[in-house]
Write a structure and sequence with these properties.
Length: 230
């Protein structure tokens, strides 16, 4: 084989390899490395006790539109964004996958949910950021602020659902519904004045990065959710 033929063969191999793993490379970059970079950047500023220029401004803008109807709506969204919605759905989804004997999917979901909760508790204790005190919230919280548990939990659930549905015809519906829900949960925490916007960004970034990492680890071979059982 001539040098030119070897070069052409090598080029075809590389192109084929990149084409075969293009989805995983996109997931690695957009859903793991970029969110991880965002979280590290935010965490560094929080650790140095630096103020984010957008935090107070966005909080006051949210408070400016407050009213009885929005109060009730965002209190409800906040409630289902964690203990009364996200947590029960996390458990139900994992148990449902176990009952259906979708062992890999159940492991993916269970590790994602449990790991996200533990990671959130650990990072809150590490950074010990106080919550906003710009006004008295109608739904006060007393734990630490960074990163937002509601944002991280809802982003974790959203990413799990999206990745489980990605290779089905429901992918874009899952992206729209799960993404909208997570975004609403984040907005609710800002509206209620119990989180800085940077807390929400940190929670979203940590949740997305964690689930993406678990997915890439458990699906390092070609098996994909809903395609392989056992």
């Amino acid at each position: 084989m001539s040098p030119a033929e070897r070069l052409a063969q090598g080029r075809r191999f590389i192109v084929g390899l990149l084409r075969e793993h293009s989805g995983r490379l996109v997931l690695l970059f957009l859903c793991l490395l970029v969110p991880l970079w965002v979280f590290v950047a935010l965490a560094d500023e929080v650790h140095e006790l630096e103020d984010f220029y957008f935090d107070d401004a966005l909080l006051w803008q949210a408070h400016a539109i407050a009213g009885p109807a929005l109060d009730r709506f965002f209190v409800f969204i906040s409630a289902i964004g964690y203990q009364w919605g996200v947590v029960p759905v996390d458990i139900a989804l994992t148990v449902g996958l176990l009952i259906a004997k979708r062992w890999r999917e159940a492991t993916f979901a269970g590790v994602s949910f449990a790991g996200s909760a533990l990671l959130n508790m650990a990072t809150k204790q590490f950074f010990q950021r106080d919550r906003p005190t710009l006004w008295e919230s109608i739904a006060p919280e007393h734990t630490f602020s960074f990163p937002s548990g509601h944002a991280m939990g809802s982003a974790t659930l959203a990413m799990v659902v999206v990745l489980l549905c990605w290779h089905t015809r429901w992918r874009w519906l899952a992206v729209a519904l799960a993404g909208s829900f997570a975004l609403l949960v984040g907005v609710s925490r800002i509206y209620l004045g119990v989180h800085y916007p940077s807390d929400i960004l940190g929670g979203f970034a940590a949740g997305i990065a964690w689930v993406s990492g678990v997915y890439l680890l458990l699906y390092r071979i070609r098996a994909r959710p809903w395609q392989v059982s056992g």
